Amino acid sequence: MQLHGFLRATFDIDLALALDDANLVRFIAVAKHFCLIPALPVDMETLRDARLIEQGYCEKGMLSFSLREPQVGGSVVDVRVRPEVPFSTLASNAVIGELFGRQVPIAAIADLLVMKRIANRPKDRIDILVLEKIAREEYPNA
Q1: CA distances from 75 to 23, 34, 83, 98 (A)
Q2: CB within 8 A of 99, min separation 6: which ones?
Q3: What are the two backbone dihedrals, phi and then psi, of residue 78, each rounded to the nearest 5 degrees?
Q4: Which of 63, 19, 119, 67 is nearest to 131 (CA)?
Q5: Residue 127: which of 21, 31, 10 has the closest Cα?
Q6: Domains of the chain: which residue ranges?
């Protein structure tokens, strides 16, 4: 949302990754380099175990594998393990935004709208109104 121009306090970054093993190995190496740790008391390699991820979804409704910085109040990175929009679609529709001075692919507004409409929490309904304003090229923070 913020990378599309909506200013709000947020404490996490949602990531959609290609969930193939080679990509997950690379991602875990980067996460460890930045000292991220799983929010739950599990080994980070759990992210590579499709059976355990599926079990987490079936038993607890887990949609994301959360990693966090070790300090109190640190940032959280949520890796979407059950994306509402397939990764291949997100990747092909992505637009380029800037994050920490780097060019990064971000989910297209149309894909964010699909995800927000499926989640349909109170904050998602607000996000839908904002995303629709952005899509109409209106200022989202008014």
Answers
A1: 22, 11, 21, 18
A2: 3, 106
A3: -100, 115
A4: 119
A5: 10
A6: 2-135
Residues 6+ apart with CB under 8 A from 113: 128, 131, 132, 135
Report domain 2-135's class. alpha beta
pLDDT band at 1 (very low <50, low <70, confident <90, very high): low
- Please report the pLDDT score of residue 2 as a whole number: 64
User: Distance between CA atoms of 31 and 36, rounded to whole angstroms?
Assistant: 5
Sign of CA dihedral 33, 39, 41, 45: negative
6, two tokens: 């909506």
pLDDT in the model for residue 3:
67
Q: Which residues are CB-neighbours of 109 under 8 A, at least 6 positions away?
A: 4, 131, 134, 135
Q: Are 1 and 127 in contact (CB under 8 A)?
A: yes
Confidence of residue 101 (pLDDT cuts 50, 70, 90): confident
Residue 11 tokens, joined: 């404490």
Kindly report, residue by residue over 36-88, the tens digit of the pLDDT.
Answer: 999 999 999 999 999 999 999 999 988 899 999 999 888 899 999 988 899 99
